[in-house]
Amino acid sequence: MRPTRATVLLTAGLVTLFGAPAAAAAETPASLYVNNQDGSNCSDSGSGTQAVPYCTISAAAKAVRPGQTVQIKPGKRYDEALTIDRSGEPGKPITLVAEGRDQIGLPARVSLGESAVTVSGASHVVLRGLATSGPVRVGGSTDVELDWMDLEGDDDVVVGDASADVRLTRSEVNGVRIEGGTRGTLLGRNFIDSTTATLVTAVDAPGTVVTNNTFLLDCVAALSLSGASTGSAVFNNVIYPVDFTPCASGSAHTGIVVSESAAAGTRADSNLLVDGGTSQLNAYNWAGTAYETAATFRAATGQGAHDIVTPSAPGTIHGDQGSMAVDSGDPTAPGVLPSDNRFFPTADDPSVPNTGKDGGFIDRGARETQDDLRGVSMQLDPAWAPAGTTVTAKAFPSSTWPAALTYHYDFGDGTAPVVTKERSAAHAYGKPGDYVVNVTAVNGVGKKVSAEPQTTKVTAPGPLTAGFTATPVLPTSDSPIGNGAPLTMSFDPRPATAAPWPVTDVYVDFGDGSYDHSDHMDRAYRHTYSQPGDYTVTFTLYDSKSGTSKVSRNVRVDYAASGYVATEPFRLLDTRTTNTPVQGGYAQSVALPIGTRVLGHELSGSMASAVLNVTVTGATEDTHLSVWPAGQPRPVTSNVNVKAGGTSSNTVTVPVGADGKVAAQLNSGRASLIVDFVGYYQPNIGERFSPVTPTRVVDTRTAGGALGGGQTRTVKVAGVNGVPADATAVALNLTGTGATEQAHVIAYPDPAKRPATSNLNVEPGKDKSNQAIVPVGPNGTITLFTNSGSTHLVVDAVGYYGKDGKALFTPVVPKRLADTRTTGKLAPGATATVAGLPANAVGAVLNVTATETTGPGFLTVHGFGTPRTDASSLNTLPGLTVPNHVTTPVGDGKVSVFNSWGGSNHVITDLLGYFTQS
After folding, report:
1. What is the pLDDT of residue 15?
2. Residues near 45 by Cβ (< 8 Å), separated by ≥ 6?
3. What is the DSSP string of 192-254?
4. What is the distance between the alpha carbons of residues 232 and 229, in angstroms, rounded to a whole number?
5. C-alpha–C-alpha distance, residues 837 and 856, integer Å
6. Which residues pair with 421 in a beta bridge?
7. What is the rounded distance in angstroms from the CA atom of residue 916 to the CA atom of residue 918?
8. What span, in angstroms and rounded, lies between the C-alpha atoms of 61 and 85?
9. What whole-number distance in Å separates Cα of residue 286 and Cα of residue 283?
10. pLDDT class for 3, splitting at 50, 70, 90?
11. What's the pTM value of the predicted model, to 2 decimals?
12. For the chain, how big is the Rg over CA atoms in Å?
């Protein structure tokens, strides 16, 4: 008796009140697991859990209980004969099934190789997704389902020994034999293929049902019912020749054979038989009489009222569009399944008349023709409009049966989706916003595809009013690939523009003679300026309703604050090796190692300024050299001063030009130019700088003695004198004195890797200085080397770079801050104040030059308002113009320059950049 609703609710209430019996809830798991894959931790002596599955299917088959499912992991072959001799219960079958799905989404199959599969004396059994080329037999069994099987061995699938209610469905087989008093066998939605023997033979098998199968045969019979196979049914099948060549003499394709003893109560209809145009198809042999056409068969037997016998039927095997099999079967036939050989549901092709029984639309054969619904796209019109405007969404399906589709339009504003058979839907938005619109197309069997969502911009009504934001574009990595050039700006009209209708044209004037244009307002406009400064940037906008608006404003473009990246020094340029000295009045272009430009020295593609050691030698007359960013006007500043025939060097910190180069030019004469790369600054990477009060690190005049030619000396620079042990680089002032001959000095980090560069050129009778930024080597040391003669060295620390550094460096185009030649000499013992630095600067990088010196001495640069130390910034000599790169603390936007008691000097101070805390 079927329970009433009240009984069910009462039972549920009792279970809720008292709880389910504990043993029933825990005794029998729903699934057992089989997995023979490597690393599966399987064991046939276990209990078949997911953690410890069985290794063989047979072990699970011996343990499975009614209502349980054996989940078999596909992949590795199971070489084992499988026998099922255990039974389930009505409504609680034992089920063995391949786990998961294959690569194209169909249920998976597991391979048993050539092993036999036997179901013997069992009932209520389901086998799904097994593949074997060995023999398969069902004997003495009841209510057995073989589904989604691949059974294409040489032997027929045999169902016998008085079995009952055996179902072979959605499978591929080479032949089936039903015998031995077996009753009620169903063959449905199978592909059955053989070239050597009758495909399906039923002997003494009453009630056999053969529905919606595809037979592929070669001069053999498709189906034979004989003996006591009465009351059988043959419906909706496709019988098709594998080869369209004529059969040998005496043989022919045979469709359906029903012996006289099996004809009683047996029915056949809605079958499609194809003879390949050879006229050798004996479509029917019924009760001993052959019939070549459906008409003669129907006239003689009353059967086959909807059968089709035809010379050809293209596309029939796989249920292709336009096939005679489409929508022409009998949906009421015995044994009809709701899905086809690939588990696709019965579908109605709207392009084909429904000629099946009672207007039904099931296809004949194993396959059901489907709508190939591949996707859908969408168009919004307009996609940008003021609130209250009607927006139309139109769908463009990719479908075989577009007329059968239903569309669900979601306009993204919380209103109910519009469901319609129409390919378009209209909607008016009530308030401004960006709304995500989508459409989903659904075909007749429930398959869904959705378009790529699109955003409609709903705006406030009003006039077009242009605006824009201006943002510096800063690099985020030091990768050699890609380039984030300094002085790059991003101008974006989208956040600041009120545009009720779509903007159709955007014109940008960057204020430096460069322009950009696009026909949509869908992006920011990026531009790299050649030099810092104030630029008037103008945006002119036009919209789809002929509206226009223009906006202009001043934009300040400057270099960004940067961290320092120390590199191993290497030589970039030496005109002596190419015999191409630089000429006065002509700029020499120097390509910096940006990105992959210099082989073996691949550095960041986004460096903002470079630190170089620049040497001028062999000058034909007294002259000076200026270095500045390429592409910019030459500044009035200088970096290196050299006497005729002499050699002079200086450290130079210079911004990178827009083309990744710097320019160097002699004021007059001719000389050789040597450029060594020391390191670089870049936003968002590198180390911060902390200035320190100039502190003496080493003075060989008081400790260790002069450094001899070809010798090295290791000096501790980190972990002492206020420089932390984890500093990555130190800023030093190097002074050479008492040199016995002309030579050069190198300061470098690794004593085992001396670079082919130089930091200081020394001469007999002259004290010469140069500042160097040197990476810290092993144990917080650097190494000093001179190539010939001997010289005393004085080394003063002026700052360091490291993870606890305090300030970032902002480069500037070289700028003159002070020149005493216009205000009067700096007397011995006097201090000059140099202003013009930002008030928040904590340090500065300067080029300080002493000229017209009346006596030997030195200059010391220090922060304004701070005590002066004994360290020197540069050494002065009569008759020489001496420059030096100076890094110094800053106080209140100023620095102090002290002149020693040696003699009066003119002092020229040029700004190269400054440090600020942030």
Report:
1. 36
2. none
3. EEESSS-SEEEES-TT-EEES-EEEESSSEEEEEETT--S-EEES-EEEES--SPPPTT--EE
4. 7
5. 29
6. none
7. 6
8. 8
9. 10
10. very low
11. 0.63
12. 46
